[in-house]
Write a structure and sequence with these properties.
Largest sheet: 5 strands, mixed
Radius of gyration: 19 Å
Shape: globular
Strand order of the largest sheet: 2-1-3-5-4
Structural class: alpha/beta
Oligomer: single chain
Bound molecules: zinc ion
Number of helices: 11
Distance between the termini: 8 Å
Number of strands: 11
Length: 314
Amino acid sequence: MPPALPIAADLAAQIPQPRVFLEGNPTLELNDDPNYAPVIDAVHKTFIHLAHSDVAPYVIASIQSRIKAQALDEGTTERRVLDAKVAVSNITDFLRDSTPCIVLRDMTDGNPSVAALQWGTVLKGDKPTAEHNIIYIEKTLAMVLCANATPPPDVQSPTFQRDSALVMLSVTVSHETIHALNKYTFGAALVTPKIGTFEDDIDNGKSEAGFTFERDFYNYRLEAIWEQSKFADANTRMWHMKLMFKNPAVTSLIDSDVDEPEYLQFNPTTVSTFIASLSTHRPMDIWAHRLTTYDFDDLSQASWLRFHSLGTAL
Ligand SMILES: [Zn+2]
């Protein structure tokens, strides 16, 4: 297998460092706080990877072209959709010229139930202008990465927990970036239409472009799992998250430790490989043999091979 080439410094430098805020009274900008440097760096590297890795711009353009084709099939007369330009360069142009702001927010709305937790969302608004170009991220997911975050004493592998949170943050930012880009390309109010090759949006019976990207790009869906007793405390919950591979993934809460065979648990090698790949041209490859267990069904195995036929030898 050829080595994964790093993304060249001049390409990486095209994508500005995102501005990151902590929502509150007052809302604070975090870019000058050195404790938040790992959070800002993780988001920045994710943006650079989406803009400049070998595969991401093509996967994203494919999603956008299917959305436009479906809207045309349905006979849309909306100017903003008819005029929308779909191109492989869209994601690069967007992240370079209209870099989204990140706002860390309590996405549980004060309700310490996993059912209430949203990992991220984009600001809904009528205008795809700069001040509406915001991605909200669950704040506890980001804050576990802070340089001064202290693990609770019962955490056995703080580095692994922190790296797992970084993977979840990166995937969440990628997912929301797809929504932010679609808003930018097609106009603010676009709901992804129902498309047969997309993942379903269980909330509205239509399709979900962000999960479709996760499936098509990473080739898996992430699932975060906690023991019941470990979720409620917002200050420590991310230190106890178990990151799993599952398809389809939904955030769920279970009573005991995880041993269902359909779950594949990430291990330290998997997460460090993912993090290293953020800085390279190669897709963020989660290799089956690096996972703790290997239990793909035929469909997953086929799709795994399809993914790697894009340019890397298995
Ligand atoms: Zn979504």
